[in-house]
Specification:
It is a single chain. About 35% of the residues lie in helices and about 15% in strands. It is of the alpha/beta class. It has a domain at about 1-50 and about 105-145 and about 190-265: Rossmann fold, CATH 3.40.50. Helix 11 (about 220-230) links the parallel strand 7 and strand 8. It is elongated, with a radius of gyration of 20 Å.
Length: about 270
Amino acid sequence: MLLPNFSSQREKEKYFRSLNDEQKIDALNEMVDISEHIVFLGGAGVSTESGIPDFRSKNGLYHKKDKRFSMYKPEYLLSYDCLNKRPAVFFDYFRKNLDCRSIEPNNAHRKLFQMEQRGKLDGVITQNIDGLHQKAGSKKVCEIHGSALRSYCVSCKTDYGADFIFENTEDVPHCPKCGKVIRPDVTLYGEFLPQRDYEEAVALIRYADLLIIGGTSLEVGSAAQLAHMYHGKFLVIINKGKTKMEGRADLVFHDSIGKIMNQIEI
């Protein structure tokens, strides 16, 4: 399949909307082949196929029934306010629900690593905090919500590894050096995004000529903001549910992200 040279945006939209499923995969592969700066922007749906629940779906983390936390709104339990005012509650919830150390990458993570290895991917921008892209081998990963696999002291800033919080026996873990609280290196509700990762993500988006958005509904402001910055040649969305910006996308796949990504030939 050879993509035509489009004389207008309307002609381009009409062409892509006329494709059947097999032709859409062919078109995706040609986009990947001819693009020089591919970027992947991913959300929770990338990791659900590894067994990590997302947040807002009917089977997601926010709909789990647990009497210990029933008096709190789900967003509060992962907020800076909760960490600051009710740290024992925060760490109880965090340890119970966000320990992803034993989870393994899936086809989507592995394909993205393969694309990076072969010079076809400039980088991954992820909302996920599970570290699975790095576990699959990816080097250029912008973690705009931080990582549950890192922690640090709020006072002396000493870095601690993935195990410190999850294996610490204190209700609230404290720094062996200065005695202050050790917190996870994640972006909580009520906090700013990590500046370095966000700036790197912006640079990737602005330079990209193919943006693949996967596993996110773009409901979270940080991802939506980055997606709206994109003005490159091709836009592809892969998500089981409806996603904002589908009207702007060249190709939309309402399917398993691992299944679609696995059909990319490089």
